Every structure is written in structure tokens, then in C-alpha cells.
Amino acid sequence: MNTKEAQKLYLASGNAGKLEEFRVLAEACGRNWQLELLPDYAKLPEFEESAPTFAENAAGKAFYYSRRGDGIVFADDSGLVVPALGGAPGVLSARYAGPGAKNEQKIAKLLFEMKGLEGADRGAYFVCVIAAVRGGRAVAVVSEKVDGEVLDAPRGSGGFGYDPVFFFPAMGNTFAELKAEEKSRHSHRGKAFRRLLEVLE
Question: By the 8 A CB rule, do 26 and 33 touch?
């Protein structure tokens, strides 16, 4: 890779918050990549994430959107898995409380479903799979996870999604209570993205 000029990586998403998280990760790694949202993403027909696994959804999304842009396009599929709920929310994490539901609604449904569960039954883990495609060919598919537990009430104001109820024992806080740099260092998305950059380089 040319160390003098940053190469571009396009995120197949319209989520500016997710892009910023990836940028923080790239900067923390000292990697020479320029991250951008895929141009005109919002104008494109949305990819239907209907596959039963994170990997299939991430790869499908990356292939789909790579046809609409030059360079390396990467996409992630991530979510919260609660074994005691049969793996839910799982691949439906973003749509757990229905299309367009806010984070608070997703969390409320999760806590309702977990009402009465205690101890090990509140164990959970976040999964992130990232796929990168260039010119219609897969460049990399990486996966990481992080273990924790679901609290019975939200804590913290940072992060997004299920972060306020995901307690990370190693730090003694929820993901929503961690600073951005701390979360990036320990999160499933952070670990997966670092692996992606290592593969690309």
C-alpha cells in the first residue's frame, strides 16, 4: 500500500455515526485509509438483509453496493445474541421492534423478553462480520465477538443500539458508559475492523 497517499474505503451505509466510529478506529490504529460513506447511498434501492446469518448479510450487502462505486466497498452486519432467547435479537437486531423502531423501543422489547431471567441466562454477546469487495470480487470477510450480559435497565448515554444495556465485565461498565476510544478498543466492531485493515494491508 502507498504510505504517502491514503486509499479510500467506502462504507456501504448511510449511518454517519457508524462511519465516525470506523474513522476513530482507523485513526487509533494509525492506518492510512480515508473512510467515506458510499456516494448516493440513500438514493440507491435498499439491500434486503434477509439472510439467516451475519456473514451472508454482510457479504451480500458489500457485493450489492460495490456495483455502484469504485474502489473497496465494505459492509458490516452486527447484532446482539442472547442464547437464552434462542439467539434473538440476532440478525434481526436492527429490526427487533419493527421497521423504523428507535433504539429505546428495541431495548424496551429486549428487556421485556428477558423479564425474569437471572444469572447466566442474562449472558449475551455482540457479533460483527465485515465483508470487503472490490470490482465484484471478495477481498476479505472477518468476524469478531465480545461477551457480556444484559442489564435490567439502561445505563449511560453514549454509543447506540443496545449499548446502554450491554454490560462489559472487563471494564465494569456498559458500552454506553465507555468513552469512544475505550469502546473502539474492546468492541466487536472495533476488533473486526482492525482485522479487516490488517488483511487489506
Answer: yes
In a domain, 169, yes or no: yes
pLDDT digits (tens, 9 = 90+) for 22-46: 888 888 777 678 899 988 888 888 8
The total number of structural domains in the chain stands at 1
CATH number of the CATH domain containing 186: 3.90.950.10
Cβ-contact 143, 129 below 8 angstroms: yes
Domain that holds residue 109: 7-200
The pLDDT tens digits for 109-160 are: 999 999 999 999 999 999 999 999 998 899 999 999 999 999 999 999 988 8
Mean pLDDT of 54-60: 96
85-88: long-range contacts at Cβ-Cβ below 8 A with a sequence spacing of 24 or more? 85/113, 85/114, 88/113
**Strands ordered across the beta sheet of 137-150:** 33-37, 7-11, 72-81, 123-134, 137-150, 166-168, 173-174
Asked whether residue 2 is assigned to any structural domain, the reply reads no
List 166's β-bridge partners, or say none.
150
Would you say 25 and 33 are in contact if contact means Cβ atoms under 8 Å apart? no
* Neighbour count for residue 1 (Cβ, 10 Å): 11
Give me the active site residues, please. 77
Predicted TM-score (pTM) of this structure = 0.89
